[in-house]
Amino acid sequence: MFGGQLLRTVGFTxxxxxxxxxxxxxxxxxxxxxxxxxVVSSIDLLVIGKEYLNEDNYVSKDEMASSNFxxxxxxxxxxxxxxxxxxxxxxSGDAYSETRTSYFHKxxxxxxxAKLRIYQDVIEKYLSSGTKQSVLNMLNAKYIIVQDQQSxxxxxxxxxxxxxxxxxVKQVKWVDDRAASLLALxxxxxRDTAVVEKSLSKNLVQPQxxxxxxxxxxxxxxDAIDYEVNGNGPQFAVFSEVYYPNGWNAYIDGKKTDYYNTxxxxxxxxxxxxxxxxxxxxxxxxxxxxxxxxxxxxxxIMLFFGEVCLWPGEKAGKLPEKRMKKILxxxxxxxxxxxxGGQKFIAKFLEYLSNETDLTVISTDDNDWSLVxxxxxxxxxxxxxxxxxxxxPCKKNHRYRRKRKFDTLVCEHPYFAWLAFRIRxxxx
Length: 428
Prior knowledge:
Elements: H1 2-24, H2 30-52, H3 61-68, H4 73-79, E1 87-90, H5 100-104, H6 117-127, H7 133-138, E2 141-147, E3 154-158, E4 166-168, E5 171-175, H8 178-184, E6 193-197, E7 214-220, E8 224-231, E9 235-242, E10 248-252, E11 255-257, E12 260-262, E13 266-271, E14 274-282, H9 285-310, E15 326-331, H10 341-356, E16 358-363, E17 388-389, E18 392-393, H11 395-404, E19 408-411, H12 417-424
Helix pairs in contact: 1-2, 9-10
């Protein structure tokens, strides 16, 4: 087996070097080189892939669903609860790496063995060897699945004492450090008292207990959670969500505010008197930076391919008098409406071209062309033609381009460099 792989690797290497040599000597055209590389890489992937992923690895859809995604009697009983804002704690089996519970419910054990350090600390201290009821309550464990000692089968135990997704406390208890915060969970009434480190006490006001004050969750998404609160005096709320400041930000009535590491693992927030809306949003700085990098990279890619591939006759010294007089732009995927930085760049770039040139756009038929006017594109709608099958331009595009005698072809995606090289060599 090893010898066969070695011979195949040597053969492919010789083939690739030979193709590159022929290309350098102008014996092969770029399109032919690209096709040869495509065939070689496809064969290599298919041959290697078949050794590790073949017919024996596949099971039918029904078999997969019945063995992994069929709700048990306990799951069906829990799903009868129409309140979605609770968690399930599974004590039977491997509670912290099994995945079935997380498939059907919000699970305290989670579905991944790698957990945040603060969460792992609470598991090891209060949930692994025996369970601390107050800790389960603050984690909103409304249902607990245990193993029946006699039958050995899983049994469902409701927990009506769970605190819910959020609650208001009567007082804030100050502790010296992180270790003291973790230990304080063992001897504190967590329903009435929030545990916060002294170093985090800036701008935190002790609450004025109001028995009529209320707080509730009104919306839960993966990256945004909304709450409503109403009280006659300042309150302190605890949210049964893991504290993670490297991404989650808190807003009161749309204004960003600080929140606190509470009960070692959860989030806490000081709330002024009155009726307010609270929102936690996951917006890590890394995502914002990534969008900026993607936007800038899209600009450089467009400039690069515009310089290398798009100006017809450049090497022959046959540049049009006005390079961007009549332009055909190919956008091989939907970009209206735009959701990513790349799509936004394409929309704005084509908007600019439409204001400066006679622009025709070829794109997919699932664009929302009603947004053209919103983007202030002056080119009439009838000039935006749909001549693409799937995402790949067909011969009809090619004939249309020659018939209209475009000065410039703009291929948005690098995958279409082969098309630019082909058209570049044609007489104009």
